[in-house]
Design brief:
The protein is mainly alpha-helical. The protein is built from 20 helices and two strands. The longest helix has 46 residues.
Length: 406
């Protein structure tokens, strides 16, 4: 019954909706700008949606071209320097550089081209021999690398060559180590930067400490190499020919078999011959490795001696003196790692430096002025100065600096 009584009445929400409609109709009449505010959202959405298909289509077409246009210029330039040149072209370029790098007047340009090849990644196992010929031509004269006009170029070339070490064999690596000692470490001793000078001397000290103790065989080999250099390359080549000829008869001692009796001999003899050949090959390889190790040690010792001599020449520079004292003293302490001739050179260097130390302490020098380094000058200056707690040096106190200056 209750439902029938209220069935004809409108729901309460209907009255509220009717009122809202009346209010909205009045506001629509008063404010005509409201109707266009409702359509903009769909219009904006449709506007955004419409260009998407063409933009997506346009992007799909030129995506390759856009990626090629933006980063392609840089990649193309790198491609030309790295892989565009064929292997034959790289080899021809290395051969030309090797032919010109021996000339000191053309060394600067040739070395820069070689550095560009290294940076471009053109040095690989297939071209390593031709690249090593460039380094070998550059070091045809071991003293040219220390000339004032060529030091920077030699330093840059052999510093960059360290990036191509993995492509070289063991013999080439040993030679590169010797050449790096002469072209990089020795040239660092000519610098005017105290940090670079002390760092180079530290590397020389490490190289000296890594040397093994010299033996009598090393002395004999050194004397023999000096004799060969004095006689000349022709005598050395003839000596090598004689040694190679002496080994040839051993291979020709086998007589021919005109009657074919070797076929009747059991196969065990062939096995023995192959085993013997393998043993001889292993022995030859071992001997060649020992010879290469001895050559490396001899060359490295000579390079380190040249570094010590270059450092000793700079002893007149005050800020170099303390570092040189430590370096030559270290070489003197490890003198057993050098040959007899090199020991004499180290003894002379150490004796001359000790003499200069005594002269500096006595205040004697060629110029007549007090020739001391910075530390000794400060030590002498502040040894008798008075330090006050509340004032600066020479403030009237009685505290001396002798304790911390030694």
């Amino acid at each position: 019954m209750g439902g029938d009584l209220f069935q004809d009445l409108p729901p309460p929400s209907a009255s509220q909706t009717q009122l809202q409609e009346l209010q909205s109709s009045t506001t629509v009449k008063e404010h005509s700008s409201n109707p266009p505010l409702e359509p903009p959202p769909p219009a904006l959405k449709s506007a955004l949606k419409r260009p998407k298909p063409p933009s997506s289509g346009e992007e799909s077409k030129p995506q390759v071209s856009a990626s090629a246009l933006a980063p392609a210029p840089g990649k193309r330039l790198r491609f030309k320097t790295t892989t565009d040149a064929s292997e034959t072209q790289v080899i021809e370029a290395m051969q030309k550089i090797a032919s010109h790098i021996k000339n000191s007047s053309k060394f600067s340009k040739a070395s820069k081209l070689a550095v560009q090849l290294i940076q471009a990644g053109s040095v690989n196992p297939a071209t390593s021999d031709h690249f090593f010929a460039i380094l070998e031509g550059a070091m045809s004269s071991p003293t040219t690398c220390n000339e004032a006009s060529l030091r920077a170029d030699y330093h840059a070339l052999f510093s960059a060559a360290q990036d191509a070490v993995e492509c070289l064999n063991k013999k080439q690596k040993n030679l590169l180590t010797i050449w790096t000692t002469r072209a990089v470490m020795a040239n660092d001793l000519f610098t005017d930067d105290s940090f670079v000078f002390s760092k180079a001397s530290g590397r020389i000290k490490e190289a000296i400490s890594s040397l093994p103790v010299a033996t009598k065989d090393d002395d004999e080999e050194e004397a023999a190499s000096l004799e060969e250099t004095e006689v000349g390359k022709a005598h050395g080549e003839s000596h090598r020919d004689n040694t190679s000829a002496s080994s040839i008869p051993e291979a020709k001692e086998e007589e021919p078999d005109p009657f074919g009796l070797d076929a009747l001999i059991p196969s065990t003899s062939k096995k023995d011959d192959t085993a013997k050949g393998k043993r001889e090959l292993v022995a030859k390889n071992k001997k060649s490795e020992e010879d290469e190790a001895r050559k490396f040690l001899r060359g490295q010792r000579e390079a380190l001696i040249s570094c010590l001599e270059i450092a000793a020449r700079r002893y007149k520079t005050p800020w170099c003196q303390t570092v040189i004292d430590i370096l030559v003293k270290h070489a003197s302490d490890n003198i057993s790692r050098f040959t007899s001739r090199q020991r004499d050179a180290i003894d002379k260097l150490w004796a001359s430096i000790r003499e200069q130390q005594i002269r500096r302490k006595q205040g004697k020098s060629v110029s007549g002025k007090l020739d001391v380094n910075g530390f000794e000058w400060l030590q002498e200056k502040y040894a008798n100065e008075k330090i006050s707690i509340r004032h600066s040096v020479s403030g009237g106190g009685e505290r001396r600096c002798e304790q911390w200056l030694g």
